[in-house]
Specification:
The chain is mostly helical. The protein folds into two domains: 69 residues; 78 residues. Helices cover 61% and strands 6% of the residues. It has four helices and four strands. Helix 1 packs antiparallel against helix 2, helix 1 crosses helix 4 and helix 3 packs antiparallel against helix 4. The termini are close together. About 3% of the residues have low confidence.
Amino acid sequence: MELTLAKALIEKNRLTKKISEIKEDIRTYNSQILGAEREVDVEVKWGVLLELTDLLIDLKFRIAACNLGNPTYSSGGIQRDIFRLSELKSLTSFLRGLNTQHGPSDGRGYLSRGEALEYCAIFRKSDVDEKVEVFEKEINDIQQKLNQYNYETTFDFDTKGLI
């Protein structure tokens, strides 16, 4: 079966959710009061869990291989963009949380002589806003590139009838 990378990512998430549900069933129904009717066959669930886990591993590997191996992208495929996107989001979050207080204290802090504390910020709020704006533009550009890549990239994958 041929999958686009976009569809593969959806199926990966669906498989992950299904695996989680099966684990919860096993957790819930593994031990019951002796003589109680079993609503779930835990051993069957276990077998399905192992099959789906193997399928998920294969699917994740194929997704990673696509991200690393497309010849139209130099030095590591689209994976470099994925890493950059992650780090830009992290930097944006960091900047948004940065203390940019500058000038005299708002009255909460005083020196021992009774003088108000004065702050000196290297990155002022306007600087942070500018940096965030630049990062957000690049984040949007990369996300657009990734979306296009995910919808254009295909590979064959045997779902073994499980998805």
